[in-house]
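<instruction>
Derive structure tokens from the sequence
<entry> Chain with its tokenised backbone below:
===
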Amino acid sequence: MLFWRRRHCCHLCLKRNSKCFVVQTTVMGFVSLVLLVCVFLMFNNHSWVLSSMVSGGHPSAGTVNHYHSKNSLPMIWALWKMIKRTMPMAQTEPELEHLSDAFQDSQRNPIVYNYIINEPEKCKGINPFLVLLVAVSPGQSYARQAIRKTWGNETLLPGLQIVRLFLLGRDTHKNGDAEHSIKEESKHHHDIIQQSYIDNYYNLTLKTLMGMNWVATYCPHVSYVMKTDSDMFVNTEYLIKKLLMPDVPPKTNYFTGYLMRGYSPNRNKDSKWYMPPDLYPEDMYPIFCSGTGYVFSGDLAEKIFKTSLSIKRLHLEDVYVGICLANLHIDPVPPPNDSDFNHWRVSYSDCKYNQIITSHEFQPDELLKYWNQLQNNKHFCAKLAK
């Protein structure tokens, strides 16, 4: 919880830093104003300079008053307005750099992007129990391969249909070899969905919405969907058997994960997770689930996507999905156990990982190592749990 709070939310210390930044910027602006006025006076009133030299720095009152009344004040006021216009630019530069360019893609309307790679037949003839939507960047081929061999294995649980999809955008570098490699990977595994938006952090919301739109379009009868990230450890077996329970009828309007309740926007402009007031003016976010891993019923894919078309998009994907849910009057529900979903790295032990759904910050080689270790020892841990 502290990790996410540092990323997304506004703290007292951050506010203090922000105030310090404003004070420092204001002082610098005032000093700049004084220097500009001095230079202006020196170079635009030679008689004042000469009289100052003759009288030891005390020009005649008439000359100085006459100059100030007719020329100085209007020009000083113009200079001050110029500095005021410049100062906010210096303060909001991170916002403009982070958001305006990134949102060129994400603010397109309608929110539909061309498929570079698609798998429209993925759910044809089947009604999957679970679709795994994995947000991944184009260059993360090792992560994709590790997930295929571990928690993303579509044949992990015999008798249950699992569909694995990696969500990709367009690589900003337009590397021809990399693009060719992704297409070859897609031909071999048939699990890549790539669209024409730019693949970067600020378009993660867009990536998630595109995944939901794919589910609503090509796999509308799926029972459940899980959206997660490429650096996650997911105990798929525990997720299905202990949380989703395939032996009971599928739920509707169901959304769960690591609940984030009572969080406020991060107003620190130096933060990667800064939320500008003009994008989100409210003081508090609605309840949402950490974007590292959340699960929802299949019917919500279409509902969330459709309501997103009328809601101003934000770059914080998990917050934005929470706003869409609030607009639908659907509250995320807590999982059965507080320890089920974790948006931080949980220290590994066989029996601990046998009783959780997610853990964060895994490299591909770590994922392979610990997954294999868990598979070898999970039956022993299950006996201990009884």
